[in-house]
Amino acid sequence: MTPAPPSEQRLRAVREVDRAAADLRRGLPVCIGDKVSAGVAVSVETASAADFREMTMFAGGPAQLALTARRANVLHILPSGHPVQLVPLDERLNRDLAAEIADPEHDLSGGLRGPFPQVKDSPPAFAVAAVQLCKIARLLPAAIVAPLAAGADPDSHGLMTVAAGAIMAREADAAAELKRVAAARVPLWDAENTRLTAFRPADGGLEHLAIVVGDPPRDRPVLTRVHSECFTGDLLGSMKCDCGEQLRGALAAIAAEGGGILLYMAQEGRGIGLINKLRAYALQDQGFDTVDANLRVGFETDERLFAPAAEMLKRLGFSAVRLMTNNPEKVAGLAAEGIEVVERVPHSFPANPHNADYLATKKSRTGHFL
Ligand SMILES: Nc1nc2c(ncn2[C@@H]2O[C@H](COP(=O)(O)OP(=O)(O)OP(=O)(O)O)[C@@H](O)[C@H]2O)c(=O)[nH]1
Ligand SMILES: [Zn+2]
């Protein structure tokens, strides 16, 4: 079922989310919430001591570190059952230590830094949204938050204000309103008769590309690959994963069939971004597998949404696919977004010494058909 397009008001809100994410990346505080419950937040990763001080000028209560439950678990904070866990800052757990414990780079070298107290209460909406905004900004999923002081006027000090609900709804809203922005013929070595079409999400975020080989008929299931961007594998030829082979192999297979589609999704690192993927790779260097590494950085195993891929297929006139994948979640994810997956076409390549463990983990922990 195609979701109803978001209203003008929601689209405006979604664009504000992107602006607020950009502010977090610069280290600036942002105000999250509405008149009933609002907070101020900075990214643990990017805010300097001065940015943090600026944030506290708007605070009407104690500052707290907001972490994902995944990261809190790594820090041995007792689970509270909430997806976001708050930890009060105090003399010992100051901004510097907060930044250090949010970053898995120091896990094994920094010694034991706990125990940290558990806040049992469910976190306020602004704290949950602050962590989500860090994810949207492709930063470490950790924020320092505080309730907004009564009578504070963040607007007049140039702080962005964004609704918590807009942050949480942003991915769905942005996918529902993809804009086709450019298209051109691009002959490829593996598939000469190829056309690229770029789709821009409503929030102004990164574009996804549809690579259409030949002119596949719209009334039959189309051979399709939904490929998530992998800078290291696709571009550099990294041996740590199978992405490069899957990308080129899919284009060659589609061309050999006479036509099909490759969707190149701006969802690097299963949606966590290149820098966080490098953080996960550093943990893999220390012996963690691809799943545990993601969890230790503070993310879910896979943070991708399939709505944008499904929407692109629909916009191109396709409703049924033969999907080249080994990932059962991809099949289910597209189906849940209204695309009929009539067949799963296996898409695997021989392992090499650097990706054998990665492929084995996909099979044993994420249920890949390999
Ligand atoms: N976070 C993280 N991302 C990774 C890692 N290795 C590869 N990736 C990313 O995973 C994505 C690869 O996804 P896909 O090619 O769609 O692979 P898949 O989900 O296993 O499914 P199929 O290839 O279709 O079977 C790319 O965005 C890569 O950047 C890793 O160790 N950690
Ligand atoms: Zn890869």
Automatic annotation (TrEMBL):
Keywords: GTP-binding, Hydrolase, Metal-binding, Nucleotide-binding, Riboflavin biosynthesis, Zinc. PANTHER family: 3,4-DIHYDROXY-2-BUTANONE 4-PHOSPHATE SYNTHASE, GTP CYCLOHYDROLASE II-RELATED. It is an enzyme of class 3 (hydrolase). Zn(2+) binds at residues 230, 241, 243. It catalyses: GTP + 4 H2O = 2,5-diamino-6-hydroxy-4-(5-phosphoribosylamino)-pyrimidine + formate + 2 phosphate + 3 H(+). Catalyzes the conversion of GTP to 2,5-diamino-6-ribosylamino-4(3H)-pyrimidinone 5'-phosphate (DARP), formate and pyrophosphate. One of its GO terms (biological process) is riboflavin biosynthetic process. The keyword Zinc applies. Pathway: Cofactor biosynthesis; riboflavin biosynthesis; 5-amino-6-(D-ribitylamino)uracil from GTP: step 1/4. Belongs to the GTP cyclohydrolase II family. This is GTP cyclohydrolase-2. The active site is at residues 302, 304. Binds 1 zinc ion per subunit. GO terms for cellular component: cytosol. It comes from the Bacteria. GTP binds at residues 225-229, 246, 268-270, 290, 325, 330. Pfam families: GTP_cyclohydro2.
